[in-house]
Amino acid sequence: MKLKAPEHILFIKPYVPGKPIEELEREYGISGSIKLASNENPLGPSPMALHAIEKALSGLNRYPDGSGRELVMKLSKYHGVSYNNIILGNGSDEIIEMLTNAFLLPEDEVIIPKPSFLMYEISAQSAGAKLISIPLKFLSIDLDAITDAITDKTRLIFLCNPNNPTGTVISKKSFEKFIKNIPGDIIVVMDEAYMEFIRDRDCVRGLDYINSEFNIVTLRTFSKIYGLAGLRIGYGVMPEYIAGILNRIRPPFNASSLAQAGAAAALDDKEFFDKTVKLVHDELEFMYESLNKIGIGFFPTQSNFYLIDVKKSADDVFESMLRLGVIVRSMTSYGYPEYIRVSIGLHEENIRFINALKKVLL
Ligand SMILES: *Cc1c(COP(=O)(O)O)cnc(C)c1O
After folding, report:
1. Cα distance between residue 86 and residue 224, in whole Å
2. Span from the CA of 247 to the centroid of ligand 1 (angstroms)
3. Which tens digit of pLDDT belongs to each residue from 240-292?
4. Hey, which of 96, 112, 119, 256 would you mutate to test ligand 1's pocket, going by the most ligand atoms within 8 Å of its Cβ?
5. Does residue 343 share a domain with residue 276?
6. Contact, 229 vs 18, CB < 8 A?
7. Is residue 104 classed as helix, strand or coil in its secondary structure?
8. Residue closest by Cα to atom 2 of ligand 1
9. Ligand 1: centre distance to CA 2 (Å)
């Protein structure tokens, strides 16, 4: 074939998402399975968001508000930041992509902890940039090693806090020490997709730095705490200069009218927010207890997912669990061939998970 994509694109390994339940059930000839693989909200979507989306349906013949005015205003109040600090994305994934598109030239360097969220690598590679992977240290992001890896060519540093897939967080103290050494021509991206689940009071938050001299971009999403992963809406909070740059390349209607309506309503859904946080915290305690009881090793988390050390092939465990109708994520592709990642489900789902795990491991 004559047509050929550029080398740096051919080099990318496509993101492999957790398969939809329907597809797995068809493949394996099973039914009634539960999905604990993608850190989704097991309670369903925010009811207030659903209601607002229904109301917005009749306006689908019109283009969305290209500036997302109502939602951005609400977010700016919610976080106590300026309107001009906020950029909406078709999921926070899209903000990652806008950042790499806007700020990277081929040969620039991007520092990414490993393992972490795979979209950082994919977006940086699609911009032709050079990945500098920094291994985690005891499952946590190694800020000292990241600092040591900075060169004249470093443009972006991605920090996932809490880190997916390990659930560890960055402390205020270690971040404070880190950020002081970051040159002014580098952007530090703090991906806080799971920030609402954190219980560790010592965890740093990117938003605390919005009025500082540092180039910090904080990413948040409606996909997890608000149960709106299918709607595709997230946002970034950043210094006005960076927001202005991203606005130059942002597709004008990247946040759909349904997404804008649903997200704006979800922000008011305090009841659903609290219910989700309580479920995750209660069920995490229940899972820790249950796993301790049967002597299976796990890593405590600050998020709505956690890692289990299955002490054998995670791919095999994934397969066996699947046959019992429980979908989890093998961590082999993340470099942990004997760990699985499990999302917190409803109480009944978590019990079913424990029973399946016992069958497979004990
Ligand atoms: C789920 C997740 C996101 C959210 O992505 P959306 O595009 O907003 O759905 C972002 N970062 C991490 C680390 C995640 O796990």
Report:
1. 19
2. 21
3. 999 999 999 999 999 999 999 999 999 999 999 999 999 999 999 999 999 99
4. 119
5. yes
6. no
7. coil
8. 193
9. 36
Distance CA 358, CA 350 (A): 12
Tally the domains of the chain: 2
Mean pLDDT across 23-52: 94
- Across the chain, mean pLDDT equals 96
- Shared domain check, 154 and 137: yes
Do 222 and 199 fall within a single domain?
yes
- Entry pTM: 0.96
Ligand 1: residues whose CB is within 6 Å? 39, 91-93, 117, 160, 164, 191, 193, 221, 223-224, 229, 234
Residues 99, 131 within the same domain: yes
The string of pLDDT tens digits covering residues 109-145 is: 999 999 999 999 999 999 999 999 999 999 999 999 9
Q: What is the domain extent for residue 205?
A: 47-266
Q: Which residues contact 317 (CB under 8 A, 6 or more apart)?
A: 310, 328, 330, 340, 360, 361
